[in-house]
Amino acid sequence: MIGKSVPRVDAYDKVTGRAKFTDDLVPANCLVAKIYHAKIGNGIVKSIDTSKAEALDGVVKVVTFKDVPNHCYPTPGHPWSVELAHQDVADRNILTGRVRYYGDDIAAVVAEDEITAQRALRLIEVEYEEYPVEIHPRKSMYGSKPPIHLDKKDNVLVRSNYFIGNVEEGLKESETVIKRSYKTPIVQHCHIENPISCAYMENGRIIVVTSTQIPHIVRRVIGQALGIPWGKIRVIKPYIGGGFGNKQDVLYEPLNAFLTTQVGGRPVKLDITREETFCNTRTRHSIEYDLTAGVDSEGHLLAKDMLAISNQGAYASHGHAIAANGLTAWRLQYACPNIKGEAYTVYTNTPVGGAMRGYGIPQVCFAIECFMDDIAKEIGMDPLEFRKKNLIRGYYEDAYLKPIAANTNGIFECLEKGAEYIHWEEKRKEYANQTGNIRRGVGMSLFSYKTGVWPISLEIAGARMTLNQDGSVGLMLGATEIGQGADTVFSQMTAEVLNMDISDIHIQTVQDTDVTPFDTGAYASRQSFVTGTVVKDCANLLKEKILAYAKELLPEETRKLRLDHGWIMAGKDPAISLGNLALESYYSLGNSSVITAEVSEQVKKNTIATGCCFAEVEVDIKLGKIKILHIINVHDSGKLINPKLAEMQVQGGMSMGMGYGLSEQLILDEKTGRPLNGTLLDYKLMTMIDTPDIKADFVELDDPIGPFGNKALGEPPAIPGAPAIRNAVFHATGVAFNENPLTPQRLIDGFIRAGLI
Amino acid sequence: MIGKSVPRVDAYDKVTGRAKFTDDLVPANCLVAKIYHAKIGNGIVKSIDTSKAEALDGVVKVVTFKDVPNHCYPTPGHPWSVELAHQDVADRNILTGRVRYYGDDIAAVVAEDEITAQRALRLIEVEYEEYPVEIHPRKSMYGSKPPIHLDKKDNVLVRSNYFIGNVEEGLKESETVIKRSYKTPIVQHCHIENPISCAYMENGRIIVVTSTQIPHIVRRVIGQALGIPWGKIRVIKPYIGGGFGNKQDVLYEPLNAFLTTQVGGRPVKLDITREETFCNTRTRHSIEYDLTAGVDSEGHLLAKDMLAISNQGAYASHGHAIAANGLTAWRLQYACPNIKGEAYTVYTNTPVGGAMRGYGIPQVCFAIECFMDDIAKEIGMDPLEFRKKNLIRGYYEDAYLKPIAANTNGIFECLEKGAEYIHWEEKRKEYANQTGNIRRGVGMSLFSYKTGVWPISLEIAGARMTLNQDGSVGLMLGATEIGQGADTVFSQMTAEVLNMDISDIHIQTVQDTDVTPFDTGAYASRQSFVTGTVVKDCANLLKEKILAYAKELLPEETRKLRLDHGWIMAGKDPAISLGNLALESYYSLGNSSVITAEVSEQVKKNTIATGCCFAEVEVDIKLGKIKILHIINVHDSGKLINPKLAEMQVQGGMSMGMGYGLSEQLILDEKTGRPLNGTLLDYKLMTMIDTPDIKADFVELDDPIGPFGNKALGEPPAIPGAPAIRNAVFHATGVAFNENPLTPQRLIDGFIRAGLI
After folding, report:
1. Which EC class does it fall in (chains A, B) (predicted)?
2. Which residue, among B376, B360, B361, has the nearest Cα to B322 in the 3D structure?
3. Which of A82, A594, A598 is the closest to B587 by Cβ?
4. Does position A565 have pLDDT exceeding 60, yes or no?
5. What is d(CA A592, CA A549) in angstroms, rounded to the nearest whole number?
6. Do residues A120 and A59 lie in contact, with contact meaning Cβ atoms separated by under 8 Å?
7. What is the pLDDT of residue A85?
8. Among B143, B218, B162, which residue's Cα sits nearest to residue B519?
């Protein structure tokens, strides 16, 4: 089963429209909620008048920031910590009268239908006192009056740093010292399904059906936001239309939970628009990097120094974890005796940065991998050769990430495959000295990525399995299918251990905090690794129980029993069918006890995935247009559970990577921080037309750490595309762009500055 | 917690309308199905033309008996048996062309809405070949041409019998021999919510949301009916509006499951009408009894002989189990050296008899307890004294029910309480010699009732508990809340073992065969006894795990740890709160593992509940009207888990018992077997106006067998009312009515025959 490209278990239902998403589960009589968003970028609400809205026929309830419980809460999808110091920043309320960014949530309307709710919003009258808006972290970090959050006088959410060796000494010893600055844009996840939830009450408890990656965390955060015991909340997660990290944040679930309590527990649907999703959910942080490196005469890195300044926006969300993850990556890949890293995460009056596929690594990878090419150029070395010279060989050993031990490192094989596909050697030479308007280039980049969050944070997962009467197995997990194929992969793992057909594994796709085991959810590319470990252990436990029961049914049998596709085999002979064994376990008058297995387990390990992207581009200098001719990602993600699904993961990630490199950015109004292109018409997501043939390849080393030799694959594909394209453009034109995306405007500006136009 | 009248956990939701029943869960786009019922009482479908129905706009699918899978299946809510001989009779198909009773299911329509479905039914054209209709079992048992079921030439479904001692010898030795015949009517359960289900497909599996008492059995029977593996079916049971045994049968779930497969897995709702519920679901069997008894000169029973003939109707359903249960009761209560029992269950062309509260005992109790009064009258003894003389003293020991050992028997205390309440001694004398039109009388009856079905059939239950982050406990069962208060009682039991507040027990009321543990469901008054045993064991297991984890958190602690309302106590001191322990178990970086417990267990025991009813009536002879002046049930059901709920159970059961005695009967047309009064207007259910003040009392012996000293209470309250009323009328008027209900027409006929009018 492992390594087989079985079709997705949810393919048929998703293609035919049978699959049920949150909106499919909303009851017919559901009330509809809409949010009143601030029309200024910074300030306070001086007065709010909801009387006209309340008087509108069909309006059931209007609540404002004055009505909500006074419990600050954090929103990121992290496991809770029992240590105060490790708890996430709790800096927001369900609604606010202190507007911190354009669109902040001031009030909400609950009405009998959507049109009435929308009309009621227009009847709410608000007077503001406005403060100056600051959208740039390099300015905001020195403070504002008043500060964005009162307890943060300088608007710096967190600063962190580390030293390895002595960077200043290292730079002094270096033959060449290079300094560059890079910047990445704010982008948005653009999952198909906007955040939507439906909340109601049952037996004094609040039930929230929601499109989330992290139902168990949503439960906890609602409890914190409303100030009620977590057990009084139940969160149900059906199929979701993508998340990419945005739904690894607790978005409007606490508001919706609060609203149902205000209307006697009636069901309330809160289905935000695409425009609200752009402005009011989460984005990928824009981060600015100042990098310095020293290399010796042979091109070895002797010292490297990173300063990162991350634009958090108005609320903490995942906050500094993203910039910090970039700081860690600065250590992991390229060997260097002297390393320094420093990062600031800074509140500004912009939409909030949160988790997005790659969790800080797409940003830092853009900076590092552009920098690698810029250094190579400076010292006159082939950039691939320069990287190979400096890459860590063998397994990653990191002072801060001790549990990573003796994992496989396939980066060199990846680079070989990528270089071969793109014809690196020939094309680097062929395109070295071009003239004219149309020029071609090849570029590459590489990355490394941790699998899950241990030891920085908790890794725990749970699984429960039941032997059905027909010998099929029910599988329940707290881990979530978010479109990535988790249900299929976990079914394969179970079938593998139990040596069964996958059609006999019935996975419960809906997570329900009341009934499915505890798992922190889909993020950090953790599930096939962390939850996979627990699935394996649980399946082994179930197998043991089945075989033990078989021994009772076959008391004379002395041969070793094993499972084989619906049979208990004694040696080479079928002894009893699994179906008949199951029937006995349910219905025997002598000895019946239904066979189930449940495991809840901490997974105290990690392993590092790597990979690279190679791209060949054609640049039309006068049009400022990049055409990608060829592009490949090669991944070392250990053993692939399902190669076809893995390839699809990479294809999707590469599309994101290309968008990040070429076209995607959320543009904010300087005066208000308001998104100027927060619609799918104006925000330039890659479409079918923009997308070249993209190639995914793998180096399948059997990693000794993962449950089936597997390592992270969920997020990595989105990481290396943007810098590879930038480096290919650099190769084609000689112009080093230090900020993505490479839009026509940015390219033409650059080419004019470089004298090409 | 045990013995406390805590409010029902579902009270608030049910009173406010928040509680979700099947119809509340039907998706907005659901198709609607309607059934085409036969318009004859016996025969075959010669031709069926559905073309006009199919052509109707909005009709999605029409299926007939020709389209359904050819798998005969059984419908009763019994555990499956792995032994062929113990499996239920499989004698029906999803639809049929062989019409066996008026209203048999020939075809079904699926349409976009209910009106279209209804219209389409009228466009179906059917030609029949008719056979003679026989609705009386005493005639049908000698056969029909053709037989109702081809493999049963004499229309006898099952005959069973037993002998203890030698009845003929016993009768010879008797001073007095009495023979009487009794008959009970067909009645219907009249639960508020008609059977309703919604079926759809997901990932190649069929999901059925249905109003049932037995979700796990519904799953199995759908599998049998459709001929697909049972694991491919998922049954979800929300709150239901009563069942009383009718929903202990698998009714239209197989048809609905089949229909969704015929419309591409789209959701299909099948919501039958009250008229269909009367005609096409199940009824309480009409049973005729011929009883003979011999008593000695002191009034001791020396021999007793029972012949029971049960009218099964057109399909087997629970079949002979009901008549057989009556045969068993014939042995259990009154000591007698020579006993004979023989029962026939006979197919006829009538609506189908199935399980109904009391499962054959209301019928046999009517016969036996009328007979006891008739014997007492014959030998000139007070009927209460006669009973006391013959009742088994101490615990019940039965050759056929060996596992019942040393249970408590509170019948004498019950009789004492009942007699005292009704002023038996005084009133038997006071009313002895009345004349005139208005006469009063007191009567009584008693019964015994097994708790669950062991050892006749399997008893198995499952429970799963989870310690939530706030120290509250999630409780999942396969046992079902059907209005009786099961959720409350199981929450109390859990709170008792864990020494917690009941508000910290969050029971999962919805059963879902994919996720909730296996349990055969609500019937046989089994749940608080059988499932209660497993709940106790599971809670003890959870407690052990909590305390074991507490020991790890408190390594220095040497005192004995115990749970006390949210705290782990070490001796007399609080050591750690359960909430903090739970947080550690979820989130500790050192040692986290969520604490859950699951138990699936056979319960190989039984115990017998007893009780009695005493009634005082006033009879208006000329009007043929009975007024109940006082009525009391006194129950020995062991320890009461929740006295208030117990009282409510008794009140509801007594209402059913009074209806059975006074007014309820489903009247069938002699020529067709068609119900003539199958509506709530014409079928005379007891209403508020008809109901006197009713009194419930208990004798609470601490039974050593039940998990908390408790015995059956679900069904018993419905049993003794009818014969007590009949015996009171006998006392008042001297007229012995041998058939219930005592309608004005039956009374006046009897009084005319007796010369009173």
Report:
1. oxidoreductase
2. B360
3. A82
4. yes
5. 10
6. yes
7. 87
8. B218
Lowest mean pLDDT among A395-404, B351-360, B551-560: A395-404
Q: What is the pLDDT of residue B521?
A: 97
- Identify which of A665, A664, A657 has the alpha carbon closest to the alpha carbon of residue A628: A657
Minimal C-alpha gap between A587 and chain B (Å): 6
Contact A77, A214 (CB under 8 A): yes
Query: Would you say residue B523 has pLDDT above 60?
Result: yes
Q: How far apart are CA B455 and CA A522, in angstroms?
A: 48
Question: In this structure, what DSSP letter does residue A195 have?
Answer: P
A157's tokens? 């959410």
| Each residue's pLDDT tens digit, B347-400 | 999 999 999 999 999 999 999 999 999 999 999 999 999 999 999 988 877 777
Distance CA A564, CA B172 (A): 67
Q: Please answer whether residues B653 and B715 qualify as being in contact, where contact means their C-beta atoms are separated by less than 8 angstroms.
A: yes
Which residue out of A23, A468, A577 would a mutagenesis test of the B interface target, given it has the greatest number of B Cβ atoms within 10 Å?
Answer: A468
Are the CB atoms for A649 and A730 separated by under 8 Å? no
Cα–Cα–Cα angle for B8, B10, B15, nearest 5°? 100
pLDDT, greater one: A27 or B98: B98
Across all residues in chain B, what is the average pLDDT? Answer: 96
**CA distance linking residue B461 with residue B79, whole number of Å:** 11
Structure token digits, residue B468 = 């939530």
Compute the average pLDDT of residues A46-60.
98
**Gap from A449 CA to chain B (nearest CA, Å):** 22
Q: Is residue B630 predicted with pLDDT exceeding 80?
A: yes
pLDDT value, residue B284: 98
> For residues B108 and B259, is the Cβ–Cβ distance under 8 A?
yes
Sheet bearing A105-111, strands edge to edge: A59-64, A105-111, A31-37, A268-271, A196-202, A205-210, A233-237, A511-512
Closest residue in B to A457 (Cα–Cα): B589
Q: Is the pTM of this model over 0.90?
A: yes
Would you list the DSSP string of B342-409? EEEEEE-SSSPEE--TTTTHHHHHHHHHHHHHHHHHHHT--HHHHHHHHBPPSS---SS-TT--S---
Tell me which chain B residue has its CA closest to the CA of residue A468: B231
Both tokens of B475, joined, read 């409780």
- Fold entry, domain A11-131+195-271: Aldehyde Oxidoreductase; domain 3 (3.90.1170)
Which CATH architecture best describes the domain A283-454+605-753? Answer: 2-Layer Sandwich (3.30)
The overall longest dimension of chain A from CA atoms, in Å, is 90
- A181 pLDDT band (50/70/90 cuts)? very high
CATH class of B460-519+530-602: alpha beta
- A668, with CB counted inside 10 A (0-12, 13-18, 19+), is buried
Put the strands of the sheet holding A460-467 in their side by side order: A505-508, A473-477, A460-467, A596-602
Q: Which residues pair with A615 in a beta bridge?
A: A443, A631
Indicate where chain A has its CATH 3.90.1170.50 domain(s). 11-131+195-271
Which residue in chain A has the smallest CA separation from B463?
Answer: A594
Tokens of A613: 């992207």
Q: Give mean pLDDT, residues A388-413.
A: 83
The label of the residue with tokens 């599309």 reads A655
Q: Do residue B469 and residue A231 have CB atoms under 8 angstroms apart?
A: yes
Domain with CATH 3.30.365.10 in chain A: 283-454+605-753, 460-519+530-602
CATH 3.30.365.10 in chain B: give the residue spans: 360-454+606-753, 460-519+530-602
CATH fold label, B360-454+606-753: Aldehyde Oxidoreductase; domain 4 (3.30.365)
State residue A403's pLDDT score: 56
Q: Which residues from A are below 8 Å from B229, CB to CB?
A: 470, 472, 579
Amino acid in the structure at residue A272:
I
